[in-house]
Specification:
Distance between the termini: 31 Å
Number of strands: 6
CATH architecture: 3-Layer(aba) Sandwich
Strand order of the largest sheet: 1-6-3-2
Radius of gyration: 17 Å
Number of domains: 1
């Protein structure tokens, strides 16, 4: 986008990942959130609706993480529309299915995800490595996570069914058997250490 065509406000929608140059005024929040994400296995971001959580994730946190070489999975939501070609009854866990559909991308047939759980998906996903051949930190972002309690209430058993969702536990346990690079931080910078986990940043309305 040419500089002359850029506008400082994107309107009544969240900033996108490609609009980080237009996102300003929240640098400290983004750095603090980056520090929390790389230092802890689970981070909960909570604020009123419309406060800009999604924008902070997309245009603030993600660029910081990627600039440090971390692998950031596409922001995912537990809600979504099941494709017409798939019967809802075929899906083991509707919440996990929607998250995995976001992470897998359009190149993967959604029918291949109906019986897959989060832990096994992450365990099988190729892990990007740094110049030294070590796996880089992988970060999972779940936006609008309160939808776990409002979407498809008739399938409430799947929210914490052993071996099916076990939501944030399964995300972090997925990389427990493999070495992965992690980071600990000060408030304003990211410094390297070691760990075996996939941190999760969860956004709640």
């Amino acid at each position: 986008m040419a500089a002359a065509d850029q506008k400082p406000y994107v309107g009544p929608r969240p900033f996108g990942r490609d609009e980080k140059d237009l996102f300003f005024g929240r640098d400290r929040e983004a750095r603090d959130l980056c520090s929390l994400v790389v230092a802890h296995p689970i981070v909960l971001l909570h604020a009123d609706s419309g406060a800009g959580k999604s924008s902070l994730l997309n245009a603030g946190l993600i660029p910081l993480l990627e600039a440090r070489g971390y692998e950031v999975l596409p922001p995912a939501r537990v809600s979504g529309r099941i494709p017409d070609a798939i019967k809802t009854s075929e899906v083991n866990n509707v919440y996990a299915f929607n998250v995995l559909s976001s992470w897998a991308g359009p190149s993967v047939d959604p029918r291949d995800l109906v019986k897959v759980d989060i832990a096994s998906f992450l365990a099988k996903r190729p892990h990007r490595k740094d110049a030294a051949g070590e796996p880089v930190l992988r970060v999972a972002l779940l936006d609008q996570f309160e939808e776990l309690f409002t979407f498809a209430p008739e399938r409430w058993q799947e929210r914490a069914a052993p071996g099916r969702s076990r939501w944030l536990i399964s995300v972090n346990a997925a990389s427990a058997s493999a070495r992965s690079a992690s980071r600990s931080t000060t408030t304003s910078s990211c410094l390297p250490t070691r760990s075996t986990r996939t941190p999760s940043a969860v956004s709640l309305r």
